[in-house]
Every structure is written in C-alpha cells, then in structure tokens.
C-alpha cells in the first residue's frame, strides 16, 4: 500500500513497485490508510508523513497501538534528526527523506519484506541486483559504484542515470528517457540536466573523459554504456 497525497509521486512509486511484481494500492489521506489497513492489511506500507486528515506519524501511532505488525517505510520532506527519531520511535521500520532515488526505495522495500518474511504476491524472481558492464560495477542495493575495483562517489542523479544505462548495456537511451528517471529526486531538472550528469560521470569513470570509452554519445539519439574490452574485441 502506498499512502501519498501527491499523485505524481504516488504514480512514480506505483510504477517501480509494479515492475518488481508487487500489487499496489494507492491511498491519499491518513484516515483512509487506517480504514484500508483494517479492511485488508497489506504486506508493506509506504507512508508519506505529510498527508491530509491524519499525518503519517499519527497513522503509525494508531497502527502500533492496535498491535499491527505490518512493516512501515516512511517518506518525508522533513530531514531533521528529531523527525527521523520520532518516526522510528513510534514504530516505523525504515525512513527515507525526499527527494529520494526510486531505485533505492525499491531496495529498501525488498529488505523490509525479506526481514519480515512477508513477500508480496507474486514474489519477484530472485536475481543478482548488481549491474556489471566490464570493469564498471553498479550496486543499487548498496548505492555503490566502482571501476576496476576503485570506488566512485556519485550524486543521486548521477547514480540513477548510471544504473539505468548499466541495466541495458549497449542499449541507446534518449535524453528524454533518462530525464524521466530523474523525476522524483532531482530538485532542479531541465533539458540540460542529463548532459551535465553525463559530463560529470565521464570525469569519474573514464580514463580520458574527453575521449570516452564507456559512456558514449550516440549523436542525435542519446547515450549508451558499453564495455570497452568487448567493443575492442568486436572491432578486432
């Protein structure tokens, strides 16, 4: 169940959850959450703090007072330590602040479902979440990137673009397609946002950023990620 009164955010979360095989129900206010949970308790509740009629903190307080043990992952624009600790003290199982990476949110959902042993139906097919393109390794669960064993620090936007490209090596992604992946956690987004992220990524993962071998431009179309060793072998 996704409790979020922002329709765009709710649809974004729904899309990612459904890709992983989860059945999703969206609820738009706190009192409706309580009614829905009492009627048919979900396997997991993704709960926004700022909602009409009853906020997320009140919802958690009531659910725990009723001895309901469903896992709760809270989402909030509040980022102070006091807010975070209050949510956890009331009984939330995990906490993410906005803006957030949808891929990281999915990793948190998988972790909570494993921990509580209440898998969604149908359960997603188990697979290695780590993405590898030659010496480039992207780990969505740990939010880590490395090249040839060297750790690379990425911003959330850079990481999302790299993870998207790494999930489809040699596939060309248009700028518009990559731009869509940034909605929900990049504060300032424009047509140039993707190009700036790509430029910064090349400085981090390429031996010669001005002559990229991994993150390539397909002129007039977009970008793709490739394995330089395989590309060299094909040319040979």
TrEMBL record:
This is DNA-binding response regulator. GO terms for biological process: regulation of DNA-templated transcription. InterPro entries: CheY-like_superfamily (IPR011006), OmpR/PhoB-type_DNA-bd (IPR001867), Sig_transdc_resp-reg_C-effctor (IPR016032), Sig_transdc_resp-reg_receiver (IPR001789), WalR-like (IPR039420), WH-like_DNA-bd_sf (IPR036388). The modification 4-aspartylphosphate is found at residue 48. SUPFAM superfamilies: C-terminal effector domain of the bipartite response regulators, CheY-like. Residues 128-227 bind DNA. Keywords: DNA-binding, Phosphoprotein, Transcription, Transcription regulation, Two-component regulatory system. SMART domains: REC, Trans_reg_C. The keyword Ion transport does not apply. Residues 128-227 form the OmpR/PhoB-type domain. It comes from Streptomyces filamentosus NRRL 15998. GO terms for molecular function: phosphorelay response regulator activity; transcription cis-regulatory region binding. Pfam families: Response_reg, Trans_reg_C. One of its GO terms (cellular component) is cytosol. The keyword Cell inner membrane does not apply. Transmembrane segments: none annotated. Residues 1-113 form the Response regulatory domain.
